[in-house]
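Run: sequence + magnesium ion -> complex structure.
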Amino acid sequence: MKSTHVVFVAGRVARSLRELFWTHLLTAGIMAMTLSVFGGFLLVQDNVRALVRGWSDEIQVFVYLGDGVDPAAGEALRARLAAYPEVKSARYVSKARAWEEFGKTLGSQSGILEGLDPGTLPASVDLELRSGHRSREAVLALVRRLAALEGVQDVEYPETWLEKMRLLMTGIEWLKWVVGGFLFLVAFLIVVGTIKLAIVARQDEIEIMQLVGAPDGLIKAPFVIEGMVQGLIGAGLALALLRAAFSLLTADLLAPFGALIAGEQFVFLSAAQHVHLVLMGWLLGTAGSMLSVKRHLA
Amino acid sequence: MIQLHNVSKLYPPDNTGVRDIGFQVEDGEFVFLCGPSGAGKTTLLRLLFRSEPVTEGQVIVNGRNITRLKGKGLAAFRRRLGLVFQDFKLIPHMNALENVSLAADVTGVSWRQSRRKAFALLSELGLKDRYGALPPALSGGEQQRVAIARALVNDPELVLADEPTGNLDPEMAEETMRLFARIQRRGTTVLIATHDYRLLRRFEGRVLMMRQGRLVGEQYTAGAAASP
Ligand SMILES: Nc1ncnc2c1ncn2[C@@H]1O[C@H](COP(=O)(O)OP(=O)(O)OP(=O)(O)O)[C@@H](O)[C@H]1O
Ligand SMILES: [Mg+2]
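>> structure
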């Protein structure tokens, strides 16, 4: 494009943004809303993930041993399991120790244990898992292997908890795309409409441009760039909005939960996510305006 | 410069724009298209700058059949024309200078160059002090001259003007017509549609008479007012 054309197009865009200021602002605002909802989902996802990571530190797998396994064999099994790559630590709990700990947890009520056989509770090896191996799938795989070992009677793990977390994460993921996708569609249609307004407002000018032989691209470019600018402004607004909401919420409301997160801090969007949101805004604006130009500028 | 062969433009269901027109215009000629309202003058001009497709026949401008021109080719074709419209077609939010340089800008000449050319033309047309004015603030005659300046800014080989004196007082009309005559003497082909027969016969040129969409006659005017 020649430099005269650049000056020309820039002038057109600036003029249209000024003339239809409120329309453009509204559209950018709606894009900002859409992108901040989407970005909000990303934020929630990241932080829930971090939260889950924090909570998973407490995931334990209990390997209950059969009655025939004596303390020496139990200790041997503990040593063997401790060497598993998934296992951070392993502790052997004999029948006697299990009974003792159980009594302690009951405290003043421990009287109800009197008369019961101290051999009632099974011996176990209690495992803590390493951080990379706490996903539902990894835990299930490990549990299957453990259950197949000789002397192992039963394996217990926080199944419902893992399942709930998995549901929560999938739920957020789905909501992100359903709600986000719906808003994207709405924002897209609004961009198409706004650019149509801009085109209609300049119908006479477009006709004159065509009559003096202006190249097609020169006539259309300003409208497409208008859409791009809208998208970029929308993305900028969305990021500012998210940042503000994030600071406000984490400083106040959610602060007490911060300690539960791995790394002990809420995380804002990463640099890559910033870029993604800006690109999404750009794409939304550009695609919307291109469609509008294609449909409404003959 | 211009050749028309059996050109018809029909507007369905039953309107006739022009019917079975054939004529030829040589390079550098001064031609008037004359006829009463509804004769088809505007329609014929619109066919000449390919604003509409013909229903039948061929339109050849500068050796090129423009009947099926569109897109890039059409834009390039129009950049070599100078068009003056009866309603001026100026962009209201651009000042006189910008309106004129617009036509140069789209050809891709430098910003500076297009402004200089526009300013020189406006000065020549007596608008040296009005170049910064927006069209709504200009009189009809001034707007007319801005429109003419725009038509001339790219040194067109062919000027097509539709009733360019329609809204002007007799003095201004004659002044404007003289300007076209001057342009023609520089070697530009000029085709002017008008129903003002009394005005045109004061200029030297060829007159094509139209009536009800048909070409009904042709004559040459001697011209009395052509030389200032
Ligand atoms: N877009 C159109 N649709 C239908 N009929 C049309 C159209 N344009 C022109 N016509 C018809 O074509 C005929 C010629 O019209 P045109 O505008 O060419 O006349 P003209 O000679 O320019 O008249 P005037 O001196 O009033 O400008 C008229 O009968 C008109 O009704
Ligand atoms: Mg007419």
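>> summary
Chain B is about 30% helix and 30% strand. The pocket of magnesium ion (ligand 2) is lined by residues B 41-42, 162 (CB under 6 Å).
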